[in-house]
## 1
Amino acid sequence: MSAKKASLLEISNLHVSVEGIQIIQGLNLVIQLGEIHAIMGRNGSGKSTLANVLMGHPSYEVTQGKISFLGKDLFELSVDERARAGMFLSFQYPMTIPGVQVGNFLRKSVSAVNESKLSAKEFRVLLKEKMSNLEIDRSFLSRYVNDGFSGGEKKRMEILQLLLLNPKLAILDETDSGLDIDALRLVSEGINAAAKDSGCLLITHYQRLLDLVKPDFVHVMIDGKIVKTGNAKLALEVEDKGYDWLEV
């Protein structure tokens, strides 16, 4: 009899506080390889807190609970170790890095995170392919990271990193916010391409993203807890009814 395969991500009874205020209160979640999970909820429900805790943001204090990633204790891994192990976070509000060119940033990011070293030629071929998929002009590479970028350009920059790094788990925090319909289509195509061989945790307010990226599971988060889990139909119910009917 074969041993049970370890979950990609397993969160058990997670409690998290910020400056003494409890934000996440007993959250449980399991993600298997190849699954797309969407988390919905009002502002302040703890969605972005969860994303930041998973990536190791120092401002968030885990007061109780366990998280394992690929069978290992996540809390024993530093932020860079989490990235090298295959975890990726797309920020809700991507930071601007003046003076750092996009091309250099992407090349060094891939080199630092991925164990398999690409030659300069292999990286250029890969970069050209992914930029073409996202309809990003080559002039993008000489600009400074997110400096003067529109909202859509910032989000496409995040998805370009996702496609280049090819993580095992993508945590995407409101990647769809501020996008017009064309940018949303391109970003969604990138997410779908990345999710084929990995796991994905989508944090979103909007059904429009889930029309293009079909989730296997939808979770509703209220007051730091997941109060209901369902399939894609749950997101439609939330869009139609709001969150009041799910209050516990």
## 2
Amino acid sequence: MSLSSPASSDEPAASRPFNRVLLKISGEALMGEAGFGVDVGQCARIAAEIGEASRQGVELCLVIGGGNIFRGLRGAASGMERSQADYIGMLATVMNALAMQNALEAIGIETRVLSAIPMVTVCEPYIRRRAMRHMEKGRIVIFAAGTGNPYFTTDTAAALRAAEMGCDALMKGTQVDGVYTADPKLDAEATRFDTLPYGEVLARNLKVMDAAAISLMRDNAIPIVVFNIHKRGGLGEVLSGRGVCTIIRD
């Protein structure tokens, strides 16, 4: 789905589809072929794409999941108390945020990590006005530790921060280039949607983001753009309006 006419890096902000976006990626996107933890090369590749988008003038903030290290739901399913498991998962997202900050700063991109769980030795506490000021100064802001509360996913945290930051869109980087009628890796007949209304995503129970995140984006009229985070140059293409993706909006 094309978002607009192609935009080059020297075009004015008014010609870009989005000027401020939140990028949500899973912790698994940082694993590479390792199967666990953070693959430094994979982290560097994603950081390079984020850095290029930032250099083009897009104000960017990120939320990174923690599933490459620990999943709260999986811990709870194994007998761990749910709140405790979720807090461990939140700490995993801080680890990923610090890894991404390191990768971004290695290529000269100023980055700040703001955590919903205060841990001032390693990052800043989340304060909305501070986060907005960082973005206005051209810094990448990474929101860590989810919402700071158990029982809420990082998808919901991403939707919440996108609304708080006044983002033009929430970009959801996934394993495939949009939302399909079925898993395209398992069903050769699966077809990709160009656009979807929020209500249909909820009614079909499509596993794009959790229902709370979808509802929050609908209430704030913020489109969700689903694209393939593993395609080289994919983020830049979608931000410029040329990329293959699915747009969820009314």
